[in-house]
Every structure is written in C-alpha cells, then in structure tokens.
Amino acid sequence: MSGGRGQAGLLSARGLRREYGRGAGLVRAVDGIDLEVAPGEALAVIGPSGSGKSTLLHLLGGLDRPTAGEIWLAGERVDRLGEKALARLRRDAVGFVFQAFHLMDELTAAENIELPALLAGRSPRAARRRALDLLERVGLADRAGHLPSALSGGQRQRVAVARALANEPLLVLADEPTGNLDSAATLDVLRLLESLRTAGQTLVVVTHDARIAATADRLISMRDGAFIDESWLAAQPPPRPVALAGLGG
Amino acid sequence: MQQEVVLALLAKEPSHGYQLRARLAKALGPLGEEMNAGQIYVTLSRLEKAGLVACEPSAGLPDRPDRKMYGLTAAGQQRVSAWLAEVSWPRPDLAEFHLKLIAAAAARLADPIAIVDAQRRELMRRLRDAQRAAMAEPDHSDAGLLLEGIVLRLQADLRWLEACERNWSRREVRS
Fold it and tell me: I need a surface site. Which of A95, A146, A216, B70 has the fewest CB within 10 A?
C-alpha cells in the first residue's frame, strides 16, 4: 500500500471540487464534497439531474480529474496519478456500470466480459473461465455466445455488471444502471445489485431510481454539487467484513 | 378536519376563522371545496376546549364565532412543533403533508425542505424493507403481489416528494 496514512475508508474524498468554464459561465458541478466509503458498503447518491452526481462518480473512478481536493482509494492518492497509472487503476481496481451499457457490439457476451481481464494480462484461459463464472452469477450462462444485439436491455446490463466484476475490483461504480430499462429488467438489475451488496462488494451507485437507491446501506442526497442530506437505510452502519486490500496486491 | 392543520395555520399569526378558511381553500384548491364552512369552527372550539388555542372577541362586536380572533397557546405551539417533526406515512394523507409544508414555511417554524428530507428518509427505509421482502418471495406468491403494491405506492410517494422538493427549493430562491 503506497502512501497509506491510515485512511479509514476504502474510498475517501476531501474537499472535492470540479468546475467547468470560467467567469460568468463558471459551473461548480461538484462543490466541496467530503466522502468516506467503508469496505463492503453500498452507497447510493440521489439527486435531480444536473445535481452533479454523475460528475462525482466520474471523479471517484478516475474518469475525470478534480479542480481541487483529494481522492484516496485503498490508501493511495489517486487524483494526482499520471495517465498510465490512472488507466491501470480504472482497469484493475474499479468496475464501471453505465446507463448505456457501453458493451462492444461486435463481441459476444463472454468476450465483452473477458476483455478487461485480458487487458490486465490474464491468460486467455483464465479470462474465459472467469467470464463464464460471472455469466453464471448474473444468470446468463446460456447467453455466453450471444452478441449484445441479441440480448434484451436487462440482459445487456447484466453482462455489463459481469464485465465490471471481471478483475475483482475493490470498488464498483454505477451511473443510473437502470436508466434505460423497463420495470421487469430493472428488477433483474435490482436483484443483481442486492446480491453484490450481500457478497460484500463495495458499491457506489448514483441514480434517481428510488428502487435502486433503496438497495443501499446509506443514502446521500445531492443538490447543486453538494451533499444536503445523509441517512442510513440499514438499521446501523454495516459490519466491515472485507479486509482493506492495497492496490499493489 | 385535522386539528394540527388548523393549529399550524395559526402559528404565523392569530387569525379569524374566516381567514383560516380562506388560507385552507387557497392551499387545497378544488380539494378544499368539499370542506364545509362550519367544520373549521367546530375544530377551533374543540382546540379551545383542549387549551391549545385561546380566543378574544373583537372589540365592539357581538360575540359570534366568526368574529373571534384565535391564537395559539403555549401548549398549542408545542403541538405544532411536534406535528411538524413527526414523520407519518401509513395513512397516505397527501393533503396533510402538503399543508404541513405550507404552514411550516408561512410561520417560519421549520424548513420545508428539511421536512421533505425527513419524510424521504422514512419512505426509503420502508421501500428498502418492502423490496427486500418482495425479492425474498418466490415468483407469483400472494404475499409478493401485496409487497409489489406497497413498493409501487412508495415509489409514487417518493416521486411526489421530489416534486415537493423542487417546488419549495424554487420558492426559496425566489424569496
């Protein structure tokens, strides 16, 4: 663990800001956020569109860089990492789930899932085995050879969740995972997120779908780039069963 | 007529019964039209007997209920504060919650947004519980169907809370 200074959370942010534009056109998309996420915690951030919740998620996952503030993941400060190190972090330590799935259209379900593992240098055989395990876990074992175009929206999102888990990430970040889904498909994704939570996967989801938010242990409301309300949905803060693992392994 | 609603409308300032009726009619729109004129006086006299409001007849006029000026007693003030802080949803009484926000804002007793937030916390907890219970049910179970109804109701309530939040944030900006 490099640079660990006894950070309590798996993920933490201090004084986080992200501004766009300047002068009269200045937009403070994220405006001074402090956040601590414990290992194994499922956190939901809710808020109206334009409240900055997606920007926050992008900052936390290293898809975007803050204007000011710090982000720590497993004891490592990530907001100052170089491009290469940041790309590695996104590939190995963080799993992303997006509203629009972002699957590769020309690859089968199994190929989409094994891609991150292959990029991380795993053997094709190990990557394929992991992909098939994950397909089983998301209830799509019989769809391994299907192209995304042959899958329903809910199935595509389950493949995307499986892909997010390919490299056993420390953290899964989901941005409106049910935004494009009907209610039956939403239920499938809901069950899947619930199973991740009970398995101790650290999870941060931003959403305006109350059903998705209600799977979380903790709920934060965001408005105008800032946190305005926080509540525990679980009766008390959850136990912390997952050991804090360093990024370097 | 919910007694606390009448009390809360008095929190801003002592009022005549007809003024209260006008405020309720404005807040409730067509829903308020069902309210009969006598109801508010019945409620006021009950509240007076309970020691929650006190009234003084207007000087020089005959002692008729519609001439009296009603105001909160200390006990009445306490009841209003308790009502504002209370989160109750099993009775899905939208009008009561709506009036709570209006009364809280008018009397500057509480931030309507904070009341919305408290309500949302409670509903989200209920949604979480109902949803987990629903997911634990086998497909097509009778209990599952009931739980689905509860989940759908809670979702609708939460969406309305979003609308309340938008509305009251806008008013804050305006004022």
Answer: A146
- Which residues of chain B have a CB within 8 Å of the CB of A190? 131, 135
Q: Tell me which residue in A194, A229, A231 faces B135 most closely, judged by beta carbons.
A: A194
Q: Which of A197, A207, A219, A227 to mutate to test the interface with B (most CBs of B within 10 A)?
A: A219
**Cα–Cα distance between B115 and B108 in angstroms, integer?**
12
Distance (Å, rounded) from C-alpha B97 to C-alpha B94?
A: 5
Task: Name the residue of chain A whose CA is nearest to B114's CA.
Answer: A229
Classify residue B96: in a domain, yes or no.
no
Q: Do B124 and A214 touch (CB under 8 A)?
A: yes
A218-223 and B15-16 as β-strands: parallel, antiparallel, unpaired? unpaired
Vertex A168, ends A162 and A172: CA angle to 5°?
Answer: 70
Residue-number span of the structural domain to which B165 is assigned: 111-175
For residues B2 and B81, membership in a common domain is answered with yes
Residue A210 and residue B169: Cβ atoms within 8 Å? no
Residue-by-residue DSSP string for B92-112: --HHHHHHHHHHHHHTTSS-H
In one letter, which amino acid is A44? A
> In order of start, what are the domains of chain A with their CATH numbers?
40-63+83-232 (3.40.50.300)
Min Cα distance A104 → chain B (Å) is: 31
| Alpha-carbon distance B146 to nearest alpha carbon in chain A (angstroms) | 16
> Is A215 in Cβ contact with B117 (below 8 Å)?
no
pLDDT tens-digit readout, A12-62: 999 999 999 888 889 999 999 999 999 999 999 998 888 999 999 999 999
Single out the residue of B2, B37, B1, B19 nearest to residue B106, CA to CA.
B19
Give the tens place of pLDDT for each residue, A108-160: 999 999 999 999 999 999 999 999 999 999 999 999 999 999 999 999 999 99
H or E element, residue B61: none
Within-domain flag for B95: no
- Spatial CA neighbour of A172 closest among A82, A111, A92, A244: A92
B120, B80, B136, B103: which is closest to B28 by C-alpha? B103
pTM score of the predicted model: 0.80
